[in-house]
Amino acid sequence: MTFFLAAAATKDALPISDIKAEALQARLARYTDSFIEWLATNKLDLLIALAIGILIFLALGFLKKWAVNWSRRAPDLTSIRAILARAAAKTSRFFRIMVATELVSITANTPPFLAKTITFLFTISAVLQVAIWARELILGFIERRVGGEHRQETLANAMTLIRLLVSVTIFAIALIVILDNLGVDVTGLIAGLGIGGIAIGFAAQGIFSDLFAAISIILDKPFRVGDTISYGSSTATVENIGMKSTRLRSIGGELLIVSNSKLLDMEISNTSMTDYRRTKYPIGVIYQTAPAKARAIPDLLKAIVEQEGGEFVRAGFTGFGDSAINFELYFDVHSESFQEVFDVRHRIGLAIVDAFNAQGLEFAYPTQTNFTAAPSGEMVMPYPAGKPSRTKKT
Questions:
Q1: What is the enclosing helix (H) or strand (E) of 24?
Q2: Is 328:320 a contact under the CB 8 Å cutoff?
Q3: pLDDT tens by residue, 321-373
Q4: Residues of 178-198 as b/e, b for ≥16 C-beta within 10 angstroms?
Q5: Residue 345: how many CA atoms within 13 Å on its side-chain side?
Q6: What is the pTM of this model?
Q7: How far apart are CA 322 and CA 44, in angstroms?
Q8: Which residues make beta-bridge pairs with 363?
Q9: What is the rounded distance in angstroms from the CA atom of residue 228 to the CA atom of residue 235?
Q10: Collapsing DSSP states into helix, strand and coil, what is residue 201?
Q11: Distances (CA, A) of 244 to 126, 216, 223, 240, 255
Q12: Which of 374, 373, 370 has its CA nearest to residue 391?
């Protein structure tokens, strides 16, 4: 008997889905009644708040339009004002709508259920908008630091990588902030992202090392394409800066390929970033040189340097050598062209040879003088009496 009563009761009962539908309808009806009552009791406040919201929306739209026009007309797209204008031009319509709606909700005594929904949407729009602004500002200041070089193919690829890294990082942070505001526990997500990043970093350590070295070259600019640099024991001209390696053309014509990370680990001397190049010529004359002629050597060297297009720095006596009276000449050549510097040095060197020959000045070279004695013990000089000469022994 009990079984049949239970069966009958079960037959007359409503399905679970119908119960959920009725509960949802009741809740919607309650929300609708509350919304209609709110509209009826707050007409004036709502109209005022709506007018304020429309004005705020239009004002934000005007600022965005001004920013767009300024960023297009700016003569220098990497100036600070142009960067700020480009960031403001990225203000989305969804954010402007939610700002106006949130202000209306605050001033118009909005029902709790509707206020929570508006606040939720406003939080999402605000976090995403801040992320967009931050991305544009960071990329703008990076481009300002790089200058116009990122227009080259290889550096454009590097800028693409920078944009990707900045975008992924900023929007990942924005997603975590949104989830945290929704009440989601993001501790595990942050830990997982950290562990995953460490694993990827160890797996591709060499690749990322060269990639970030390329980015460092872009930002720090120790050298550019076309510069002549010296590193280690090599001197070469930079032909291409890639994401993994840099290609250089040596003085002998060979193509040198060096990874970016290894290149930056070495001491680099950039000869193309100087206004002048200084040259030192050590000069030695024989000890038989007359003192008057020796005193005139610095003035003679100065005249030669200025005549051949160099800038005289200093010249003078430096010491007594084993087989020479030593002088040193320093002069500068103001040119960024290594070939022009080489030509000036060539002309000055040959002009010194010509001038010394004309003045009867002899360049010294390693020599030895042997002194011998006659059977009587008298010293036999290696040159005729009254006329010193040089005797070379090889």
A1: helix 16-41
A2: no
A3: 888 999 999 999 988 777 888 899 999 999 999 999 999 999 988 877 677 77
A4: beeeeeeeeeeeeeeeeeeee
A5: 19
A6: 0.48
A7: 107
A8: 285
A9: 7
A10: helix
A11: 38, 12, 16, 11, 16
A12: 370
